[in-house]
Write a structure and sequence with these properties.
The complex is a heterotrimer. By secondary structure, chain B is an alpha/beta fold. Chain B has helices at about 50-55, 75-80, 100-110, 115-125, 145-155, 175-190, 200-205, 240-260; strands spanning about 5-20, 20-35, 40-45, 65-70, 75, 85, 160-165, 195-200, 210-215, 220-225. The model of chain B has no long low-confidence stretch (mean pLDDT about 85). Classes of the chains: A mainly alpha, B alpha/beta, C mainly alpha. Chains in contact: A-B, A-C.
C-alpha cells in the first residue's frame, strides 16, 4: 500500500512542479516547453512503476517499466534484428518505392487534366480505406519475407502521397503562373522553378503522414505471416507466450523508430521549406 | 513633347468573357496608340477593363475581336520575344529565393550566362535603390521594398516596355509617394514605354504623359488626355494649377463614364 | 458548371474502366500456372506438357502458348487473383442470399466490426474533445500533455492491439469491448490534435472583440471557440473513423476471432480462400466509404446551418 501512496504523492508533486513551470517567469521559454512534457512523462512512468509494484499486478497483465527496461537491455540483438527486418527492409524500401512512384504519378496527373479529374477522386477515396487489409493478399503474392511487407507499405503510402503532391503542385497562385507566362517560360521551366518549390510544404506533409503509415503497414502485415523475425512477428508470438515485457520492448522500439523517422523527415523539411510561414515562426 | 514610333496599337479591340451568368463584355471597341517612350496610365472604376486591357497587351488574355500589335507583331509573338516586363499588384516574389535570386529568375529562364546574370542583378538593384539587399529573403523586407524588388525583376532583362498593374495599390500613401518619385526618375533614366494601371487620380496625373480614362459595362475608353505637365516633376507639382486642371479633367471624364450607366 | 461535372464524371468512369480492364488482364498471368495444372489433370493438352518446364517459363509465354486456357483464369475456384465478377458474385451470395444472422453473411461480419468501430469511435472522440478543451483552457495540461499527443501521431500505436486483446482476454473481458478500446485510442489522438487546433483557430482580433464585451471564459468558449473549431473537428473525425475501423479489423486478428471482417480476412488467408479475402476487403472498403461519406454529409449540413459553408 505504501507504493500506491507514493504514487499519489508523486502525481501531486508532478502536477505542482508543472504548475509552477507553467505560471512561472520562464513559462514561454524553450526550456520549459521541453522540460514540462518530460516531467509529465517521467511522472507517468514513476506512477506506473509504483502502482504495478504496490498492487502486485502480474507480469501477464502489465509489466513494470523497470522490467521492460531490463528486457530491452537484455535483448538488444533480437530487437536489432527485428528492427532491420521490419523497419529497414520492409518499411523503408516500401516507403521509398511508394512515395517515389506517387510523386511521378502526381506529375503526370498534374500535367494531364483528364487524369486529374479521373484519378484524384479515386485517389481521395482510396486514401480513406483500410488498405492494411490488403496485407493477406500481398503476403500470398510476395511471400512471407520483407518483400510482401514492402508491398503493403507501397500500397499504403501511395495514395496519401499522390493526393498531397497533386494539391501542392496546384498551390502556385494564378499571379505567379502569369508571371511565368510573361517570361514565355516552358512547361518544365515553370515546373522546376515555380511549381515544384511551391509544392514542397505539401510534399513534405505527405512524406510525414507516410512515415507513420509505413511503420503501421510493415508491422501489421507481419501479423498475416512472416519469417521468424520482425517486430510484428515478435509482438504476436510474445503475446501468445504471455511474455509481455518483450512486447513492450518491441513497442518501445516502434515508438523510437517512429519518432526518429518522422523527426528525420521533419528536419529535412525544415531545411528545404525554411521560407514557409509555418517554419519561420 | 517628342514621342517616338508607335509601340502598342489597338484597333476596335473587343473581349467578351463567357461566364456562368452569360457573356460579359470586358472590352468594347478599344482604340489606342501608345508611342515609344510614353508613360500611359489607365484609370477607371473597377470592372472598367483597365487590367484586362493590360493583360491583353501582355497576351495573358486573348481578345475576341479587333487587332492588337505590340512592337509591330501580335501580342503573343511579343510575349515570346520577351518584349515587356510585367509588375503585378502584389510583389509575388518567391519566398524560397533571395532578392538577388528572384531577380535572376527571368534571366535563368531566358538563358543568360551566369556572369551576365550577376551584372544585371547588381545594376537593377541599384536602379531601384536596393543595393546591398540582394542576399535578403523577401519576407525580411517591407512591402515597399518588396514591390521595388519586383520592379527590378521586371527591368532585369531590359525589355523596352514595362507593364504595371496597380503596383503600388497595396502600399500606404507615404511609401507610394516615394515610389512614384522613384519610378519617374527610373523612367527618365531608362526611357522605357510604360503602361500603368491605377485607380488613383493624383497618381495617374503625377506620373503620366498620357492618361486613358475608362468606364465599365461594357469596358471602354471614354477619354484620352495628353498631359501638359513638364517631364521634370517634383512632388509639389501636385499643388500647381496645371496639375489641378488635369486632375479635374480626369475626374470629369470618370463622372461622365458613370452618368450614362 | 454542369458540363464540368459531366466531364469529371466521364473521367472517373474512364479511370475505373481502365482499372477494370487492367484487372482482368492481370488475372491471366497471375492465374495461368494454376489453371494449366488443373487443366492437365482433367486431360487437356498443355504446352509445354511437363510441369517443371512450365515452372521456369514466363507467365505471358504460357498464356500465349495455351490460349484456350485464358477464359479459365477468370473462373478458378482459388485463384491467386480473383476476377472482379468473382468477387462481386461472392459478395452478392454472402449478402443478399444469406440470412443476416447467418455466420456466412457479410452483413453479420460487417455488423460485428461496425459495432466495435462505432463504440470505440464514440468513446475516443468524446474523450478526445474533453482533453482538447482541457488543453486549451489549462496551461499546465497544454505544456505537459500536448507534446505527447503530437508525438503519438508518429508512432504505430496499433502495435499495442494484440496485447490489449490478449491481456483483456486473460482478465475475462472479451467480445466487443477490447476491439472498441483499440478503436477508441486510435481515434482519440487525431481528434485531440485537430480539436486543439480548431479551438485555437479564432484570431487575436476576434478574441479581442469578446474582451471588449467583457465576455466570460465560458461565453468565449461557447460563442467563439467551439463554433470556430467545427471545420477542424470534422476533418479529424473523418481521419478518426477510418483509424477506428482499421483498429477494429486489426483487433480481430490475434485471437483468431470467429466473427468480423478481420476474422474473414484471416480465415481466408489461412485456407487460401482468396475470393473470400477480396470480398471481405471490399466490404471493409465500402464500410469505410459509407462511414466517411456519412460524416461528410453531417459536416456539410452542420456547417451550412452554421453559415460556414457555401
Amino acid at each position: 500500500m505504501i507504493f500506491v501512496f507514493c504514487a499519489i504523492l508523486l502525481w501531486l508533486f508532478g502536477w505542482w512542479l508543472n504548475g509552477r513551470l507553467a505560471s512561472g517567469p520562464y513559462a514561454g521559454t524553450r526550456l520549459v516547453r521541453f522540460v514540462a512534457p518530460l516531467v509529465f512523462g517521467l511522472t507517468v512512468i514513476g506512477i506506473w512503476e509504483l502502482v504495478v509494484r504496490g498492487l502486485e499486478v502480474p507480469l501477464v497483465i502489465l509489466p513494470a517499466p523497470s522490467v521492460i527496461a531490463v528486457r530491452f537491455g537484455g535483448s538488444l540483438p533480437v530487437l536489432w534484428a527485428d528492427f532491420v527486418q521490419t523497419i529497414i527492409k520492409g518499411a523503408l524500401s516500401g516507403y521509398i518505392i511508394g512515395c517515389g512512384s506517387a510523386f511521378l504519378m502526381a506529375i503526370a496527373v498534374d500535367r494531364w487534366d483528364f487524369l486529374r479529374l479521373g484519378l484524384l477522386p479515386v485517389g481521395n477515396f482510396v486514401a480513406a480505406l483500410p488498405i492494411v487489409g490488403t496485407a493477406p493478399i500481398l503476403v500470398m503474392w510476395f511471400g512471407f519475407d520483407w518483400h510482401s511487407k514492402a508491398a503493403v507499405v507501397v500500397v499504403m503510402v501511395f495514395f496519401p502521397m499522390l493526393v498531397n503532391t497533386v494539391a501542392g503542385l496546384r498551390e502556385a497562385t494564378a499571379m505567379q503562373r502569369d508571371l511565368m507566362e510573361t517570361y514565355a517560360a516552358t512547361y518544365w521551366q515553370s515546373f522546376l522553378k515555380l511549381r515544384l518549390p511551391a509544392a514542397m510544404p505539401f510534399i513534405f506533409n505527405g512524406l510525414k503522414i507516410s512515415t507513420t503509415l509505413a511503420l503501421i503497414g510493415a508491422i501489421v502485415a507481419e501479423f498475416f505471416g512472416s519469417p521468424t523475425l520482425g517486430m510484428g512477428f515478435r509482438i504476436s508470438t510474445s503475446v501468445g507466450q504471455l511474455s509481455l515485457d518483450m512486447v513492450w520492448a518491441e513497442i518501445v522500439v516502434a515508438a523510437l523508430a517512429g519518432t526518429a523517422f518522422y523527426g528525420l523527415v521533419a528536419m529535412i523539411e525544415k531545411a528545404v521549406t525554411f521560407w514557409h510561414p509555418s517554419q519561420r515562426g | 513633347m517628342t514621342t517616338g514610333a508607335p509601340v502598342i496599337e489597338a484597333k476596335n479591340l473587343d473581349l467578351t468573357f463567357q461566364t456562368n451568368d452569360g457573356p460579359v463584355q470586358a472590352l468594347k471597341d478599344v482604340n489606342l496608340t501608345v508611342n515609344k517612350g510614353e508613360f500611359v496610365s489607365f484609370i477607371g472604376p473597377s470592372g472598367c477593363g483597365k487590367t484586362t486591357f493590360l493583360r491583353c497587351i501582355a497576351a495573358l488574355e486573348s481578345p475576341t475581336g479587333g487587332a492588337l500589335t505590340v512592337n509591330g507583331m501580335t501580342a503573343d509573338e511579343a510575349r515570346r520575344n520577351r518584349a515587356y516586363g510585367y509588375v503585378f499588384q502584389a510583389a509575388g516574389l518567391y519566398p524560397w529565393r533571395t532578392i538577388a535570386k528572384n531577380i535572376k529568375l527571368p534571366l535563368e529562364i531566358m538563358g543568360y550566362s551566369g556572369k551576365e546574370q550577376e551584372e544585371r542583378v547588381s545594376k537593377v538593384l541599384e536602379l531601384v535603390d536596393l543595393a546591398g539587399f540582394g542576399g535578403k529573403f523577401p519576407w525580411q523586407l517591407s512591402g515597399g521594398m518588396q514591390q521595388r524588388a519586383s520592379i527590378a525583376r521586371a527591368l532585369a532583362f531590359d525589355a523596352d516596355i514595362l507593364l504595371m498593374d496597380e503596383p503600388f495599390g497595396a502600399l500606404d500613401e507615404i511609401v507610394r509617394d516615394h515610389l512614384n518619385e522613384q519610378l519617374l526618375a527610373l523612367w527618365a533614366r531608362t526611357e522605357k514605354t510604360i503602361g500603368f494601371v491605377t485607380h488613383s487620380i493624383p497618381e495617374a496625373v503625377y506620373l503620366s504623359t498620357k492618361i486613358v480614362v475608362m468606364s465599365p459595362r461594357p469596358g471602354r475608353i471614354t477619354d484620352v488626355i495628353d498631359s501638359p505637365l513638364p517631364k521634370e516633376r517634383p512632388l509639389d507639382i501636385r499643388d500647381t494649377p496645371e496639375f489641378i486642371e488635369v486632375a479635374h479633367r480626369v475626374r470629369e471624364g470618370l463622372r461622365a463614364g458613370h452618368a450614362d450607366v | 458548371m454542369f458540363r464540368q461535372e459531366l466531364h469529371a464524371f466521364w473521367a472517373v468512369l474512364t479511370v475505373l474502366l481502365v482499372i477494370g480492364v487492367f484487372w482482368y488482364a492481370a488475372c491471366v498471368p497471375m492465374n495461368i500456372k494454376g489453371v494449366l495444372t488443373e487443366q492437365e489433370r482433367t486431360g487437356a493438352e498443355v504446352q509445354p506438357p511437363s510441369a517443371k518446364e512450365r515452372r521456369d517459363m514466363s507467365e505471358f509465354g504460357l498464356a500465349l502458348n495455351n490460349r484456350f486456357a485464358i477464359p479459365a483464369t477468370w473462373e478458378q475456384e482459388r485463384p491467386r487473383l480473383p476476377a472482379p465478377h468473382q468477387v462481386a458474385i461472392e459478395m452478392w451470395e454472402t449478402t443478399a442470399q444469406k440470412k443476416i444472422t447467418s455466420k456466412r453473411s457479410l452483413f453479420y461480419h460487417g455488423w460485428v466490426t461496425l459495432s466495435a468501430t462505432m463504440l470505440g469511435f464514440a468513446i475516443g472522440t468524446g474523450l478526445g474533445i474533453l482533453l482538447a478543451v482541457g488543453i486549451v483552457h489549462s496551461r499546465v495540461m497544454d505544456l505537459s500533455v500536448m507534446p505527447w499527443a503530437i508525438v503519438s501521431q508518429t508512432i504505430p500505436i496499433i502495435a499495442l492491439a494484440p496485447m490489449i486483446i490478449v491481456v483483456l482476454y486473460s482478465v475475462g473481458v472479451q467480445g466487443i469491448i477490447p476491439k472498441a478500446i483499440i478503436s477508441a485510442y486510435l481515434s482519440f489522438f487525431p481528434v485531440v490534435v485537430g480539436m486543439v487546433k480548431g479551438l485555437r483557430s479564432p484570431d487575436a482580433m476576434q478574441l479581442d472583440l469578446l474582451r471588449t464585451y467583457n465576455a466570460s471564459r465560458s461565453q468565449g468558449f461557447w460563442k467563439l471557440r467551439l463554433p470556430a473549431s467545427m471545420p477542424y473537428l470534422f476533418t479529424s473525425l473523418k481521419i478518426g473513423i477510418a483509424a477506428s475501423l482499421v483498429g477494429a479489423i486489426v483487433g480481430e486478428l490475434p485471437t483468431g476471432a470467429v466473427a468480423g471482417l478481420g476474422a474473414r480476412l484471416l480465415a481466408g488467408s489461412y485456407y487460401g480462400q482468396t475470393v473470400q479475402i477480396w470480398s471481405a476487403l471490399f466490404a471493409a472498403a465500402i464500410l469505410a466509404a459509407c462511414l466517411v461519406g456519412l460524416l461528410g454529409l453531417v459536416e456539410r449540413t452542420v456547417l451550412k446551418r452554421m453559415g460556414m459553408a457555401q
